[in-house]
Each structure stands twice: as structure tokens, then as C-alpha cells.
Amino acid sequence: MAEVNRVGMLTGGGDAPGLNGVIRAVTMRSISDYGYEVSGIRRGWKGLLSPEADSVVNLTVGDVRYILDEGGTILGSSRTNPYKNEGDAKKVVDNMAEIGVDALVAIGGDDTLGVARRLHQDFGTQVVGCPKTIDNDLSATDTTFGYDTAVSIATEAIDRLRTTAKSHERILVVEIMGRHAGWITWGAGVAGAANVTLIPEVEPDVDEMVSIFRKRAENGEKWGIVAVSEGVTFSEDFVTQTAEKDEFGHVRLGGVAEGLAGELKERTGIDTRHVVLGHLQRGGTPTAYDRILSTRYGLRAAEAVKNGEWGKMVALRGSEIVTVDLSEATEETKTVPDDLYGAARTFFG
Amino acid sequence: MAEVNRVGMLTGGGDAPGLNGVIRAVTMRSISDYGYEVSGIRRGWKGLLSPEADSVVNLTVGDVRYILDEGGTILGSSRTNPYKNEGDAKKVVDNMAEIGVDALVAIGGDDTLGVARRLHQDFGTQVVGCPKTIDNDLSATDTTFGYDTAVSIATEAIDRLRTTAKSHERILVVEIMGRHAGWITWGAGVAGAANVTLIPEVEPDVDEMVSIFRKRAENGEKWGIVAVSEGVTFSEDFVTQTAEKDEFGHVRLGGVAEGLAGELKERTGIDTRHVVLGHLQRGGTPTAYDRILSTRYGLRAAEAVKNGEWGKMVALRGSEIVTVDLSEATEETKTVPDDLYGAARTFFG
Amino acid sequence: MAEVNRVGMLTGGGDAPGLNGVIRAVTMRSISDYGYEVSGIRRGWKGLLSPEADSVVNLTVGDVRYILDEGGTILGSSRTNPYKNEGDAKKVVDNMAEIGVDALVAIGGDDTLGVARRLHQDFGTQVVGCPKTIDNDLSATDTTFGYDTAVSIATEAIDRLRTTAKSHERILVVEIMGRHAGWITWGAGVAGAANVTLIPEVEPDVDEMVSIFRKRAENGEKWGIVAVSEGVTFSEDFVTQTAEKDEFGHVRLGGVAEGLAGELKERTGIDTRHVVLGHLQRGGTPTAYDRILSTRYGLRAAEAVKNGEWGKMVALRGSEIVTVDLSEATEETKTVPDDLYGAARTFFG
Amino acid sequence: MAEVNRVGMLTGGGDAPGLNGVIRAVTMRSISDYGYEVSGIRRGWKGLLSPEADSVVNLTVGDVRYILDEGGTILGSSRTNPYKNEGDAKKVVDNMAEIGVDALVAIGGDDTLGVARRLHQDFGTQVVGCPKTIDNDLSATDTTFGYDTAVSIATEAIDRLRTTAKSHERILVVEIMGRHAGWITWGAGVAGAANVTLIPEVEPDVDEMVSIFRKRAENGEKWGIVAVSEGVTFSEDFVTQTAEKDEFGHVRLGGVAEGLAGELKERTGIDTRHVVLGHLQRGGTPTAYDRILSTRYGLRAAEAVKNGEWGKMVALRGSEIVTVDLSEATEETKTVPDDLYGAARTFFG
């Protein structure tokens, strides 16, 4: 193991509230407690693959002390993957050497961490990973920063929309992030007291939905909120309108909220509208929870560098931050289990 | 003038944060200070035109004391207009008599207040109006409740989106309410420090926009925020893609934000995305400002009933709540004047 | 085990955001999934010990569906403890029988749960507990609802105060809840990027603090934020002013923030002020996190009733809600461990 | 009138959310639209009276573009008044000349603007004022930035406290800023639906308060919220406890909320607590309203420099930003008029 003098750090993939918390904690612990120097690499792997004038920046305690409440990442991000083109990985390693980075903290999702793992395997790169997935779908860790903020934003949106739904006697269908895992929708559906919550893990029962809203209308509540993941698909016999099928033969509506709103309006006779939260869910100041979790991740990642835990990544297990093998990061998608979805179902109606 | 024993109250048109503040203030002042009884009419004019079992509800102080922080309207709303069908207006008047309502407080926009004005003219109905337009486009009043909340929500959205735009080096185009008047977009563009703000009142200069974002990119800021009203239209030679023309021969993009995002991406080479705030802008708990303004409106409306100021509506003039003729309400749309748009333009770049 | 037809439920001790989430989940799962009837008992044990006209209320799904975003408890609370007077416990048991409550869900802290445990032991009362402690100091569960909300509020307060501290070149000392355990202060200190964080678990080093703020001043930052738990005590030789000693011979300042502010001002020469957050930390709408956790607690508590898990309480372990013996609830106070306080210390400066 | 090449700008007195909005707007309009250079003066008049190394800073568009959402003032502030010591005013004028500042924008309250006015009178200094008073007590302008934010924070505090008051059947007395004028308390009392609102302008009727809370208790609401200005005083016969008298012979309680809480508890028999909001009310990110108002002030102030409107200050009149004589700024304190306090009184109970 080569001695560490300078730690590099990069963020890859989609942004998540809390990235700056990790950057800050890695930097401050590395400098103050371990005496390392720290280089921020701009735009993920791209900054190491094809460095521009501004791709490497020296980070001081003063640079990062007050970035904890900022969303996004001060280092920028990209989806560049050096394993997509033959020879690129080698270039990354060479460039790391060139700029004098002895150890690397890679913060990102499946893709970013997969590159980190392979660099470690193929070149012995001294790398430590930090998982980032706003979707909460990483099986290697109980949860990740960004998720709590996303759920909070979506919950506040539902809180706001409910008053409009009631005033106008409408159903409002809210489309929430989550292509393959319904965690954010599940969280916001439960916390926002949605009347129906739909996630990609469970095929929606449109007949049941229709009967829920009919029954509500009979009881004088001709309105409601549906929280639906963008990744929800419908069985073929559901759709009364033109729709395309996905690779599994499932029907994927143009926009799932828009399609579902049309269908519900048709079948219930209740005016139904839709809202797509989109980018609103991932930006802005992180919740206190995400600030603390990202800080703890960053501190433990710096400690892993100190310990030489190469090829590992930090993870939350219960109340503890531990390190696990980077290969675990990409093993399988963690989806919402039946019992948790059952929790949401108790409040249908 | 017939003596007043029971005041009726209804809310019409789109919901706005603050409606409950008016309802509360009218009810509490009418009962506590004047000794009236108060009836809430459900679903706007519909509740008087075709009453159902739940269309009229007696309101007590206890019913309304704690509704000030609730968005929407506890009375519900509709777009029913009794002047659309011959004979309906008469039915409304008869039904008012039937349920013993001697005076009516009508809370709503152009349409709702137009009906109130005509009922007063045609039948001598003892009516007082209260203006409601989240769009701030009513010339008879300096501002109305709901506007501040809408601007606040859109501003917070821009605050959040900025961190994503920076992290990913993207332009984000945010579509904000306002078909004919750009007030909300103007407010959120200014308060949110948008890099470009576009309103329906001023034809957008796409070339200028492109050059702003190119210059920003040259200075190392390859990202930006565009705040755009849903009602903005483009001149014909702008659009490189299929687009339909509106009644004035202007090009109306499918969704203005979506269309503009495509165009900016094409011309600047910067990744550009869009977000449509939609219903999020009008629901949920009102700001303190809107709670206070709606309360003052409600108190003054009750006072107008006491004074017999029939055919009048309440309005804000400077720091004062005054009454003006209902006919003023519908006179002309108040649009964003040049000097205020100039204020927004100072911050372009 | 006696069959369950009617579940009683009460909340005792200080209020916490999330109590209504538990009440709602217990009620809805009990009625919808298990067919029980549910009685809410008002004012904790007082409602069973000395029932008044309004002490017992039948709860329906409609009563609780939309209380999830309300702080406090719709059932009210008290600090009545039926084990303080001979014979009172028996009265509670008799009154439960009288109102036909076969099983009881007791939601509260040490004191409330201690009563629940003894009733189960002494009378075989069919009781299930749900832990509530905003202070996060219960060793039997990883965390409890209310804590996240309290940390969020205190963090937002620090965010706000920082701008004043900078503008006026002042130190601001913020007094945060926590008599014996510093969890809330630790969380808010970390999330709020405080310059110094002091908790009851660790004796404060005033000399170190003074040197931190002197060094900051030398670097042009003549300001700072200190997050301090109300329960922090100081060693005798610290205090230059009159102060009383506590039972352990430690010096307890009148108000800890006020005393510390005076001392820091004296020693650093920097203008220093204090703020006491007090009741602000425990009220109001719960965060999404606390809404979800309290809901999961309530669902599991209802399930425990169904399973006849008498004398147990629900608890969070990792990502799972489990049940543990009620005796565990009161075993020992969970304090902030050294490594977590070390995390906060990394950011001192 | 001397030609203007470089505009100086300073902020004096207590901080207010929105100061950065003025600084930003003055800077951007001065540079982009008028071609001036801009110098920020640190720590108010102190920065001109006794300049240190960091007292004058050149401001660019890049320095200020994104400070709109920051509370406080990037220029810092002080309470230094150069008219307190003979000869100091002259020094200020000389130092302005020394650093090449031809025109000065002074942002502050009575004190700061009073200095600006005298410098203009005594030395012909080319000065423009911008009023800042979170207390809203300046008669020359309809409102000022910072007030809306302060009211919003205090309103949110009341919203939170209400749930605790209800859960524990307590009266909570909330002490809000306002020594001589009750505007913030009035606003928060109205917006927060307080049960009683007390302001310095009107002597409190404790008997009435007691009877309000007794009546509430009889109706099953043994709780309530009192919003009280820090500057409220009580008549002598009120106080059952030791208390000191102020210059007018009025009784000023140690802390008004604490004293009043003790009194209410004594007389109503209801558990009563108090909270002092203190510094929380003036810090942190400004509301959208205050961002817009401060921006408009700043733009108009720059315009006033351009126009050579020396000795004037900007002010809001209705929807317009105008300029008025600086002497108007200090003329008289604007207090809450009877009719507005009457509005608050309607909701007592």
C-alpha cells in the first residue's frame, strides 16, 4: 500500500442533496485529523479522463466549512464511464498519478461505484466508495442521503395539493421519482396520507382504485390523492387508450400520471388532474437528516482511507456506519418489500 | 334596503390560498361584532342554482376559528355561471330568498364577481364582492391574496432547481402560472434570481437568451434558470420545430417550457431540461402575508354588508382596504408594466 | 388471554410530533384490518384514573385519517402516574373494565411505559407500549418519532442565526433541549454546522472554546455559533460569576446559554448573545421521517395487540420495527457515544 | 453636482433579511446599466470613520448575483454614529474622498439615515438613503423589507406552539419583537390566529384576558396562545409580583412574556408557559416578498444616484417605489393604528 499524501474526491451520476455534506466531511477530517491534502475532481470520471483547466481543485477547510446546507455538488457531476471505451480506464489511472492523487473517494451510484471497483481490481487503485442514490434502492446500505429530502419534498407537495383536490372535488395524481423501486413514492404516499399509493413493485389494480374513489364520493369526499411512481406499468387490459408496451409486454403510459388521470376520470366521473414533480425532488437544501447522514458517511470514508480499506464503500447498518465490499453496491436493486407496501395499503380509502 | 339577518357567502373559480381567511373573517366579524347569522354556500353559484342536501351550511365561530392556515376553501368551488342559461339567475335569487339569505358575500375572480354585479343590477340583490385572483391581474386592487403564496412556492422551486442546474451544468426552464399576465413569473423570477424571466406581456428575444447563456458558459457558468409564464408565445421565425399558431398568429408551443428547453438545447449546446410547476403553485397553507390580507379583506367585506355597500367589492389601495364598484373588477386585466419588467431584466445574465 | 373487542389508547408525558401518526395508524389498522373498535382515552392515565365527561371518545377512521400532519396529540396528555398513590392503579384497571376496553396501547416515555409494565405485571392488563421520547435517549429503540422534527427545527434556527452572527460579528449561543442526553444538540450542531457543540455527556472545555473563537477572529471570522444542551454543566473553576452547584457539585448556570454567553464575551472580547429555543422544538407538523416512523410504530402496535404480545413495546432496530419487553424501555438512558461526539468535534473551528 | 464614477454603499444598525437584496440591486444596476464602479463599505459608518484593511471592498456583478437568498448583510454592520464625537463626521467625509467614493447609498434605520441626512446638509455629501426597519415603524414608507420575514417566522412559531398548547392544555405566551411599535406582533397575532394579541400601543386589559381564557376553558378549550410585544407595559395595579417601573411610571416586567405567563397562571389556574423568539426573528433567508421589495428599493436607489437625488431616500407608496426627503425618515414612529388593532381584536377568544 502506497502512502497517502493527497486524497482525490469526485461525484458521479445524478445529483442528490447531501453530496456537499460528504465532500465537506471527507475534506475536513482528511485535513484536520489526518494531515492529508485534498483535491476535488470536477465532473466525475470525466475530470480524470479528459481533464480541462478547471478539472482539479485544491480543497481547504475554508472552502467547504459552510457548504453543508447547499444542495447539489460543488464538484459538479457527469455520467462519463471510463469503462465504456477501451483504454480510458488506464488514462484515468495515469491522470490520477499525474496530479499526485494517491487515494480516491468516489461518491456515486451503481455506475460510479462500479468503475471504482474495477479500477481497484484492474489497477490496484486505492479507492474508497460512498453510495449515493436518492432512490434508496441500494441493497448494501439501509438508506442513503438524498432520500429523506426527496420524500420530504414530495410529501410537502401532496400536503399542498390536497387542499386543491378538496376545494375542487378532484382527484390529483402525483407522479413521483422511481423507475424500478418505489421507495420515494412509498414514503411520500405514507407521509402525505395519499388515498392510493402505487409503486413499480406491485401491479396496480385499477378496478380497486376506481371503487375506492367511488366509495369516497358516496361518503361525501369526491376527491383524492394518488401517489404514483414514474415507473409503474399497467396490465394490457387496463388501458382504454393508445399506449405502447415495454420490453416485458407491460403497458407504459406516455406519462404515467397523465395516463392514469385520464383513465380515472373516465371511469369514476370525477374530474382528475395530474402533476409531475420531476426535478423538484432532487435539488435544494438537504434535510437535517440528510446533512447528518452525509456527514457521517464522509467522516467514515476519510477514516477508510486512513485505514487503507481499499475497494470498500461506506454503508449504514442500523445506527452504525460500516464499510462493505464495493461489489455489494451493485449486486441487486433493493425494492419495497410486501410488508412495507402493506403499511401503505392500510391507509387506502 | 332590506334588513340583514343572515349573510350568505360563496367562493367561485379556481382555489387560492387565503380563501379560508376571508371566510373566517367574514364569519367572525358578522357574528361577534354585528350579530348576524352566517350561511356558507357550497360550490360557488352552483350551490345556489341547483342546491343539493349539503349546499348550505350554517357557520359558527367555532367552525372557522382555526381554518386560517388551511389552503383551498372549506366551501368548495365551481365554475358554474348562472348567466349562461336564461332563467338561471332568477333561480339563484329565488333560492337565496328560500334559504333566508338577505345579503351575499361573493368571493371570486372576474367571472364570479361579474355574476354578483349583474345580480345586483338586475334583481337588486344585496351583494358585496371580494376579489380573488392568484394571478394578480385585477386592475381594481393593488394585489390579492394567493399571489404572495404562489410567488413564494415558485421561488422556492427555483431555489431548489438552481443547485441541480449548477451540478449538472444544465439550463432548467421552469414553467410558471400566468396565461395573460406574467405577475407570478415576474415575482418568482426576481425573487429566485432567475437568469432570464419571460412573461406574456413581452415577446421573448430568443437570440438574446442564447447569447446570455453562451456568455455565461464562457465565464465558466454553463448552467442557468429560465422562469417562463405558461402564456408566453413566440414569433413565427423562432421555432425550428413543428408548432401550432394561436388566434393571433403567434406560435404557441405544446408546453412552453418543453418547447423552449428543446430550442435552447439546440442553439446553445447546453443540456436543457424543463419543469412545469402546475397545481403546486396554488395549494397549501398561505403565507403570513396572504393570511393577513385575506383577513383584512374579510373584515372589510363584513363591514360593507353592515354599511349596505351593495354592488361594491373590497380592494387594497396602498395600505388601506377600501371598497370600489364591482364593475371595476372586470374592467381590464392588469399586466406587468414595462418598468417592473425592466427590473427583472437588470438581472438577466 | 381475553378476547379483544375494543382497544383503548392513551398518550402520556410531553408531546412529540408524531403522536397523532401513532394514534391514526393504531386506529385504522385496528378497525380496517382487524375489526376492533377503538377508544381514545384523554389526558393519559388521568383519563382512566379520574374520568371526566370527555375522557373517553370513540375513534373512527374518519376521525383520524387526516391528523398525520398535526403536531401534538388529539388525545391530550398529562403527567398523572397511578402508581404514585396507593389504590390508584386498581382504579385504572377497574375503569378500563367499566368502559369495555380489553386491550390498551400506551404511548409515552419512561414514566408512561413504566406504569404500563406494572399494570401488566400486577393485574395482567393486556397492554402494548409505544415509546415516545423526543430526546432520543431510550436504549431500547434506535430512534423515536419527534426526534427528527426537533433536530430539524433546531437546525433551521441555527441556519437563520448564522446570518445575524456574521452580520454583527457576534457569537450566538443557542440553547437546545436535552437535560441528560445531548442527542438533539448533537444532531442540530452537526446539521447546522455549529462552530462548537456542547452536550451533557462531555464536560465542556471553555479554554478550548475561547481559543477556537480567538483563532477564528484572527482569520477574519469574528463570529460563531455554539449549540449547547440545556443540561450542560461546568466545572467549578470555570465560572467567574456567581452560580449554584448541582447535586454532583457541578456548576449549573441559571440558564446555560445565558451564562455561557456572558463568559465567552468576557474572555474573547467578542459580542456574544444567546437564544433559548424552548418549546419551539417540540410542536408543529412532523417531518416526513417522523410521520413514517410513527405510522410504522402504530401499525406494529396494533399488530402486537392482534398477536397478544402483552407487556411488549414496539421498537426500531435497523430498518425493522420489532417488539421488545416493556422492561427494556426504562432500563437505561441512551447517551451520545464518544465516536459520535467526535464526529461533531471534527467540525469545531 | 460632482460627477459620479464610484458609488459607495454601507449598511448600519440591526440586520434585516433583505439587506443583501438591496446591495445586489444597487450593485448590478450601477454597473450594468449605468457603468459606475461600486465599493462596499464594511461595518456601517465605522468602515468610513476608522477604516481597517478590510473596510472597503470593490463589488462586481459576480460578487452579488447569488446573495439574494442570504439573510444578514455581506457588508457587516455596526452602530457607530459619527455625529456622536466632534470631528468624526468630517473624518467620514474625508475618508470617502480618499477612497474615491463620489456618491453614497446608506442603508439603515433612523440612526443611519439621520447621519446620512446631516452629512448631506453639513458637507453636501452626495447621499441616497434606503430605509431598513424590521419593525415596520417608519412613517415615511408603507413597509420595509425584513418585516414580512419577521412576521412569517413568528407566525410559523405560533403555528408550532399551538399544537403543544392544545395537547397539554396550556396557555403559551409568545414574546415577539417590538419595543415601541407592535407591528410584528400584530401581524403574527393575526396570521397565527392567536387568542389574544398585545402591542405596546394599547394598554393590556388583564381582566379581559383572564375572562377570555376562563370562557374558553368552559367551552372545553383549556388552552390558548397570547402574542405579546416585548415592549408592552402594564398598569401598576395589575402586578401581583415585584416589578420595576419605567420612565413613564408603567410597570415593565423582567421579561414581559415571563411575567405575563406567571400572572395568567395565577389568575386562570391554567398551566401557562412562555417563549421568547428573540434573535430568531431577524435572521435567515428572506421571504419572496422581502426579496422583491429589497430588490426594488435597491434599483430605485441606484436610479436616485443616477438622477442626483441627493438627500433623498427610497420609499414604498402603494405599489410604487418613490423617493422622499431623508428628513421624513426620522420624523415620527409609525405605530399600529386603532382600526388595525381592532382587526386583531375581532379574533380574541
Automatic annotation (TrEMBL), chains A, B, C, D:
Activity modulation notes: Non-allosteric.
tRNA-binding among keywords: no
Residues annotated for substrate binding in this entry: 133-135, 170, 177-179, 230, 273, 279-282
Main localization of the protein described in the UniProt heading: cytoplasm
Pfam families, sorted: PFK
Residue span, Phosphofructokinase domain: 6-305
Site (Important for catalytic activity and substrate specificity): 111
Residues annotated as the enzyme's active site: 135 (proton acceptor)
UniProt keyword terms in alphabetical order: Cytoplasm, Glycolysis, Kinase, Magnesium, Metal-binding, Transferase
E.C. code: 2.7.1.90
Binding-site residues, Mg(2+): 110
Signal sequence annotation: none
Named cofactor requirement(s): Mg(2+)
Site description Important for catalytic activity, residues in chain: 132
Record's keyword annotation contains Metal-binding: yes
Compartments (UniProt record): Cytoplasm
Chain positions recorded as diphosphate binding sites: 14
Taxonomic superkingdom: Bacteria
A single GO cellular-component term on record: 6-phosphofructokinase complex
Biochemical pathway: Carbohydrate degradation; glycolysis; D-glyceraldehyde 3-phosphate and glycerone phosphate from D-glucose: step 3/4
Catalytic activity: beta-D-fructose 6-phosphate + diphosphate = beta-D-fructose 1,6-bisphosphate + phosphate + H(+)
Subunit structure: Homodimer or homotetramer.
Function summary: Catalyzes the phosphorylation of D-fructose 6-phosphate, the first committing step of glycolysis. Uses inorganic phosphate (PPi) as phosphoryl donor instead of ATP like common ATP-dependent phosphofructokinases (ATP-PFKs), which renders the reaction reversible, and can thus function both in glycolysis and gluconeogenesis. Consistently, PPi-PFK can replace the enzymes of both the forward (ATP-PFK) and reverse (fructose-bisphosphatase (FBPase)) reactions.
UniProt record similarity statement: Belongs to the phosphofructokinase type A (PFKA) family. Mixed-substrate PFK group III subfamily.
Name of this protein: Pyrophosphate--fructose 6-phosphate 1-phosphotransferase
Organism: Rubrobacter marinus
GN (gene name): pfp
